[in-house]
Amino acid sequence: MRSTKIVTLGLVTVVLAAASCNNGPRREPGKIYMPDMAYSRAVETYADHSNLTEAGIYYDATPVAGTVKRGEVAYFPLTQDKVGDTTNYVASKQIANPLPALNEKDMAEAKRLYNINCGICHGEKLDGNGPLYKGGDGPYPIAPKNLVADPVVSKMPAGQMMYSVTYGKNLMGSYASQLSTKQRWMIIHYVQSMQPGGVKPSAADAAPTAPAADTTKATK
């Protein structure tokens, strides 16, 4: 009995050794658990996706409508009007800025974002005299809107500003891809703070104060 087991074990060893030494071409890929993960369908950001559609894969590189990035404020609820329609643009007047009044630190960040993204047209002083216009000597022949003196823009509600920054208005394009929802609302806070009657930033959050020392004397 013992010799039979030894012979059987020897035969198995020989078979396994022979199989492992087979260097010939493999005709079958073998079995793969969860093949979609083993052979992922990588998608390049700016690649042509038409071949995916032909393969029955529907991908348009945009997030599902209504999704919000983790930690982000709620998305702007109104969609862009179709050409010739102003329904949502008018309705945007009723949307309030969801961010509370900015403190000095956040207002400084909002100003920085404004100068980077908006100052080139509307100017550092919000007077419409940015580098692109430059008093008429710049490459752009028409002065952008003066955000503090224009009779319409200087009184524009926050929601309507947000609509314009999100979808673009007239010659100004959309900034939704350059600025997050929160950043756009922050810039609007900054712009309105610079307009007549604007709310200035609140003081930065004060550091917690230490508890007062106990001045009572212990009695024996």
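^ that was protein a. below is b, sequence first then the tokens
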Amino acid sequence: MAAKGEARGTVVVAGATGYLGRHLVVALRERGWRVRALVRDPARLGFAAEAADEVFTGHATRPETLAGLCDGAEAAVSALGLRAMGGRLTVFDVDRDANLNVLARAREAGVRRFGFVSVLHGAELRRRVPQAEAREQVVDALRDGGPAWTVFRPTGFFNDMAEFFEMARKGRVWLVGDGARRLNPIHGADLAAFIADALGDPAAEGRELPAGGPDTLSQREIGALAFEVLGRPARFGRLPPGLLRGAGALAAPFSPNLSNFLRFMAAMGEVDAVAPATGTHRLRAFFEALREGGAEDLLARH
């Protein structure tokens, strides 16, 4: 494995303007890769703009805009995923089809390594959660052959934990089930470093690598930490997983993305999401930064 900063070839980063994608651009550049960032809007690269050697403007959901994306590249890594609950696109348009479009371009160009960010417990969740099913279909395609692949399975991101903080700021944190399910969420910079190191490591080829952060907490403990940082008494409400699943089924014909979100939340109230720990960012420090700067400002910068 090459040392940090050693010169490498070109790596394509798909989803470069997202929470994880921006950190990936920086981490890969620090490790000597020449970074080609796939974006819809270059202005959204934010703090990662200076680390991108090349910006490729295209829409991953529209394959005709991706011609030449991977030409001359040695590797590609995709962090594409749909977060918005509104709009016309669904998780199958983005989490599946957009990633498959990038994979097709990588295969056409003879890219040697491909990294893909899926979800922890994806194989177990795919029949219950549309987002997991969409991403696991990409994993299935990678297993069908070429290029050499690595699948990354994070537990959950710090920017998702910001939702707990905002609920606490408003006065009540809603737990799914009894709030006892445990997870160790990971900061985008820590996961990006983990991915960038693995992408240059031949031993990571053909492997699925789970990753979480240094703090393992229950949902209730995450909520309590948010209240503690805010200096407020903890107040909780409960949402039964069955109720969320039922609401998800009812929402499916009208809002597939809302349906996916509700089903995903139901699943998170029934399984732990704990993976081997990596990185140094602590959730308390993240919440303290949110308290001082506000969630919108912090997440825009980090």
